[in-house]
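Hello Y.,

Per our agreement to keep a running log of every chain we model this quarter, I'm adding this entry. I've kept the format consistent with earlier entries: sequence first, then predicted structure.
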Amino acid sequence: MDTNQTQTLIAMIFVLGTLVLLVLPSVIGIVRDRRVDRQIREAQEIRKGVAAQKSSSRSTVPSTATWYAEGRRSKKLVNS
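Predicted structure for the entry above:
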């Protein structure tokens, strides 16, 4: 290998190294985001399962707003 080929090889290795250094943070960020998304999806699935168990075992109690609205309706029926 002569001097010209050696300089070309060194320049090519330098350019490829620079490219790797520029692209590496993006690749690490993408991998991290995918892992976080997967963890969020798994947590939501677990949460849905727990919510389904709670809703089936809990007795249904009307909310305050429902109770108030039903009271208002019954008063209107009595007044009319």
